[in-house]
């Protein structure tokens, strides 16, 4: 199996970089691990409408991999700005490279807690709409006291730590193999009759959806933070059906103000 491993910082020195290089060497018989740096990537900005070449290369490498490994430091209970910026760039790429992608998160810190807050922060980000990555549940590898964890050859010292890393990585390999059919589904064979019936059903459904949208959306705000991803632009957003309609009596309609806020209901 092939995995992309992202160093979650643009710093020149990082224990998280050491951990990934150790994993690459330690698991070389089980999988091919390609380590990716994010040191030269520009900070994400909505005003830059063209995806940087470096981000495009990372996205292409991710698409060809069986899974993704993040090794993240912890800055102020969160991931680094550089890593967050990369994920925001990736969220703009279509087709989405992180969608249904198996992800393993590891982390190293100087303190005792081993990036526990940063890892939870990263899990939350990767589960957001538009990304929808599949992060390996449980199996958290949290390495604290980084200065004491490696020897002069940049290898982990503690046998229990190595054993737990092996346990987590083996589970990630199983997880990645299990999810592979979701990312690369086998093409389905359909005869002409099934294809025609499928298209007719689709057209019928689309017609009903258009009618429902026209009948039920009466000025309600159509955007939420979850809809837009890494953006504040109101682009390609489908309106949602009004949740207030279930409370209307026959002959009643909803009234809204100039900015789309619900003012009340009235009788026709």
Automatic annotation (TrEMBL):
Protein name (database record): Fumarate reductase flavoprotein subunit
Organism: Lactococcus lactis subsp. lactis
Cited InterPro entries: Flavoprotein-like_sf (IPR029039), FMN_Rdtase-like_dom (IPR005025), NAD(P)H-dep_reductase (IPR050712)
Pfam family, one: FMN_red
Region annotated Disordered, chain positions: 186-232
Superkingdom, taxonomy of origin: Bacteria
Upper lineage: Bacteria, Bacillati, Bacillota, Bacilli, Lactobacillales
One GO CC annotation: cytosol
Biased composition (Basic and acidic residues): 187-205
Span of domain NADPH-dependent FMN reductase-like: 1-147
